[in-house]
Amino acid sequence: MKRIFLADLHGNLPATLAMERALSSIPADETWFLGDAVGKGPSNAETCDWTRAHCDHWVGGNWDYGIGGKEFSEDQYFWDQLGPERMRWLNGLPREAEVTMGGLRFRLFHGRPVTSLLRAQDDKDLLASCFTTERGVFDGVIFADSHRPFIRTLNCGYIINTGSVGNSMGVPRAHALAVDEGPGGMLTMSILSVPYDNDAAAQIARDDLNLPHRESYIREVLTGIYSR
Ligand SMILES: [Fe+2]
Fold it and tell me: How many whole angstroms from 176 Cα to the centroid of ligand 1?
């Protein structure tokens, strides 16, 4: 059984299509979306529709709820691109889910708004608090939001970040998480690192004079350096 976990497409269509091509070479049994299909980039209807068409399970992220729920008036650009039906879908996404792999129970969420932004270097007590909910104690958590992929352990279990498809920090490639379940409970967990045409992504943004924070977005897709 192979599962893909991906998140943070953020309106970047060239990165999303590059990930689609990469995934076609390693067909998965299930694809999980862990939030932020939209916001930041210029191709939001496209990445929202891609997420709905290519994933099997969905969890929402802070941008999905912020735009879908019309939380901030500055997001008019995104509302105009998406329209009411997509916004309703985004705003109605569940905030978390769970999956059992290799006999281990993993909690799945985007990060915000379920919990504040989680980073690899965050305090271990803060990270450990994510393993326990009213639904019990989990053996691992898989989340996104910080746009930086990692796979590691704490004393309470695995903590894994999928990285970002469309707005990766650090290394400006498209990232996702692949988990293979083998015999006897064996898990192979890996980060997919997919190159894509960053110049094409930047050009789409350059050509869209109405994109909010356009220069910051262009810098981020070209360099992977967070810019606002
Ligand atoms: Fe994000």
Answer: 13
